[in-house]
Amino acid sequence: MSNDPRPNDHPERPLRDAVKRAAVSTVKPPHPGLIPGIGVERTGVEFPTNKAVFIGAAAVTVGVIIWAFAAPENLSEVGSEALTWVTTNFGWLFGGTAIAIALFMIAVGYGRTGGIRLGADDEEPEFSTASWISMLFAAGLGIGLLFYGPLEPLTYFQDPAPSQDVTGGEIEAAQPAMAQTFLHWGPIAWSFYALMGGAIAYSSFRRGRPPLISALFEPVFPNSSHRVLGRFIDFFAIIVTLFGTAVSLGIGALQIQSGFTIVSGLPPMGNMFLVGALAVLTALFIASAVSGIKRGIRMLSNINMLLTGALGIFALVVGPTIFILNFLPTSIVEFVKQVPTMLTLNANDGEEAVEFLGAWTTYYWAWWVSWTPFVGMFIAKISRGRTLREFVTTIVLVPSAIVVAWFVVYGSTAIWMTMNGEDLQSGGTSEEVFFQVLQRLPLGMVTSIIAMTAVIIFFVTAADSASIVMASMSQSGRPEPSRWVTITWGLLLGLIAVALLLAGGQSTLSGLQSLMVVSALPFVFVVIGVMVSWAKDLRTDPYIIRRRYARAAIAQGVRQGIGDYGDHFVFGSNEVPADEGAGAGFDSDDPALTDWYVDATTGPFETVTAQDVQRTLEPWRIQPKGENPVSRAASGDASLTVGEKEKTSGDADSEASGSAEASESGEASEDGQASGDGEQR
Questions:
Q1: What is the 3-state secondary structure (H, E, C) of 37-66?
Q2: Do 500 and 250 form a contact (C-beta atoms < 8 A)?
Q3: Which residues are within 8 A (CB) of 286 and not within 5 positions of it... i.e. 6 or more apart?
Q4: List of residues 6+ apart from 41 with CB closer than 8 A
């Protein structure tokens, strides 16, 4: 750990740290291979409001809102030109980063680091597997799944990508259309989320750092969260989260309007409907975020998983079933075959390629980059206690399988209907396609209402979580951000969606989509830095150290056993000369291997137990929910809402042993010090 001084706004920290170092200097730290890990709740880390980050990000947001009202055409024009410039000059960076992240997550999940736990070695999952997957589904897919489900495969079917040598509108274009869709929504997209979610969970729940993007750079830039660079990183994390989420909310509002028009039979109601719908939905998600109601997001996610699952099964059963099933296995094979061709499309292939990349592939990579802080932090909060192999397998493969099934069902149905003469865009808009498909199936009115309900729930859960995440990042990663900060970001999020749609409708929304790509450009370098920093952290993880010792001990034991007893020996544990031991050549006394734990812990040192080691022997097993899960402030249900702390402040003295001063002085909302015993108050 660095000896850099803490920020001057807390002058008591150096004295406190000095006293702590003096107190532990006489106690020998645990062996680096026996450190169990430590969650951020047990570190006494403080979470003050980062005024520079909060005010700076809010000012930029207000500026974009004013720009949208004052000059919507200019916003759209500037966004379009900026998008073309980014696609032409940095499309290679987005594409290369996407490939690098996918390969990196394969190495992290299925290499030697797969047994590392996202939390202390004795921690268990806080959610059942079904609830975990449901929340992943709601956070990482959401509105886009319903909007693009039939639209995107149909678009590629009618107008194939430049990398596809097929004729649009013919049956031969159907499988390449599916493959192109899987490229954008499948394993590569989820690798973005797995990277940020895994890095945040590891850093916060195993290394005891604040749940901040800037804190991920601690191995490379010690004390990174308090440096100017760290503040810029958190600033950009909020900006890309805001823009990326606002794009989804704008799409959701347009789709709700389209669904309402089709279901009600009324003519398009224009801006008045959009403003009213967004106002109601903004009030709903802000109320949800600050209500302090536990299990709210989990319940809504489970409901939406059932609704969308029912819609998918319904379309499969009553739609062109055989046509759909024929595409299910073949489109996966086509995707695997087409991946190299699709990934090699670049700006050098001509203007058509530049236009396609800007509208689709590069746009998607930028969209996933912009969603990584929000979705990554959300995934981290619900994935505590999982191993990295279990985490990567579930985060990348399970949602990808859902994506494949959904797009095959609705994409094939839309293609089949189009081939049979149906016009799914008779109203001239993209957001109507999903509802037009449902209207041409039995019970179209009922399923359209169910679809609208799903869109609304996706809207609320996404905006709810985004508001909490942006508030948390504004307050130095505070697990339970202040109500007023959460409300502020909720209002700004709703206001920017209203402003864009009211000021310029689709054109202004397109301008924001373009600006989202541009704002994601600097954050790509942050994402690359996260890979480098996390890899450095993982190399010195206690699990990796024990693994190294195990391999050395076995090798030396076999050598010694054969030399002493030939074929007749078993292993024991004996002291041997230093140069023959399991730790030969490894400096276990290096302070860098233990300082992160010694400096972070507020209680007695702990070590890994035999049971903890036993649990690491099956890193691939999907674990059930813990029998007696502990309620922690930084993860699980408690971390998905704000207001719990205030509601139970009367019990704080008896339950939060490490935060007595904050409880007595009412400074929890100012300093945000984490509870010393790790329990949610």
A1: CECHHHCCCCCCCCHHHHHHHHHHHHHHHH
A2: yes
A3: 467, 486, 487, 490, 491, 494
A4: 479, 632, 633, 634, 674, 675, 676, 677, 678, 679
DSSP-assigned letter for residue 342: H
When the pLDDT of each residue in the chain is averaged and rounded to a whole number, the result is 81
For every residue of 198-225, DSSP letters joined together read: HHHHHHHHTB---S-TGGGGTTTSTTGG
Type of residue at 640: L
The model's pTM is: 0.84
> How large is the average pLDDT for residues 417-433?
86
- Reported confidence tier of residue 19, pLDDT bands at 50, 70, 90: very low
* pLDDT over 70 at 492, yes or no: yes
CA distances to 303, 304, 453, 462 from 297, in Å: 10, 10, 15, 9
Per-residue pLDDT of 102-153, as tens digits, reads: 999 999 999 999 999 999 998 988 888 888 887 777 666 677 888 889 999 9
Nearest alpha-carbon partner for 185 in 145, 154, 158, 146: 145
- CA atoms within a 13 Å half-sphere pointing along the CA-CB vector of 46: 18
Answer yes or no: is pLDDT of 28 > 90: no
Dihedral sign computed on CA atoms, order 629, 212, 61, 455:
negative
Report the C-alpha gap between 398 and 383 in whole angstroms. 14
Q: Would you tell me the crossing angle of helices 361-382 and 351-359 to the nearest 10 degrees?
A: 20
Please state the length of the chain: 681
Q: Which sign, positive or negative, has the C-alpha torsion 92, 95, 96, 97?
A: positive
The span from the CA of 202 to the CA of 383, in Å, is 10
Q: Are 629 and 124 in contact (CB under 8 A)?
A: yes
Three-class DSSP labels, 598-666: HHHCCCCCCCCCHHHHHHCCCCCCCCCCCCCCCCCCCCCHHHHCCCHHHHCHHHHHHHCCCCHHHHHHC
Both tokens of 62, joined, read 């207000």
Rounded to 5 degrees, what angle do the CA atoms 462, 368, 365 make? Answer: 155
Number of other CB atoms surrounding residue 130 within 10 Å: 11
Looking up tokens 């450190």 gives 35
Query: 643, 290 in Cβ contact below 8 A?
Result: yes
Q: Which residues have C-beta within 8 Å of that of residue 340, sequence separation ≥ 6?
A: none
Question: How many angstroms separate the Cα of 299 from the Cα of each of 107, 131, 366, 459?
Answer: 34, 8, 30, 15
Are 496 and 65 contacting, i.e. CB atoms less than 8 angstroms apart?
A: yes
d(CA 67, CA 500): 9
Cα(327)–Cα(157) distance, integer angstroms: 13
Q: Which amino acid is at 152?
A: E
**pLDDT tens digits, residue range 178-213?**
999 999 999 999 999 999 999 999 999 999 999 999
Q: What amino acid is encoded at 86 in this protein? A: V
Please state, in angstroms and rounded to a whole number, the distance separating the CA atoms of residues 145 and 148.
Answer: 6
**C-alpha span between 522 and 545 (Å, rounded):** 35
Residue 238: Cβ within 10 Å count: 27
Give the span between the Cα atoms of 236 and 466, in whole angstroms.
14
Which residues lie below 8 Å from residue 460, measured CB to CB, with a gap of 6+? 281, 284, 285, 288, 300
Per-residue pLDDT, averaged over 407-411, amounts to: 96
Q: What is the mean pLDDT of residues 440-458?
A: 91
The alpha carbon of 354 is separated from its chain's Cα centroid by a whole number of angstroms, namely 28
CA distance 559 to 556: 5
Compute the distance between CA of residue 502 and CA of residue 495 in angstroms, rounded to an integer.
10
Q: What is the mean pLDDT of residues 345-353?
A: 90
Q: What one-letter code names the amino acid at 156?
A: Y
Burial (0-12, 13-18, 19+ Cβ within 10 Å), 168: middle
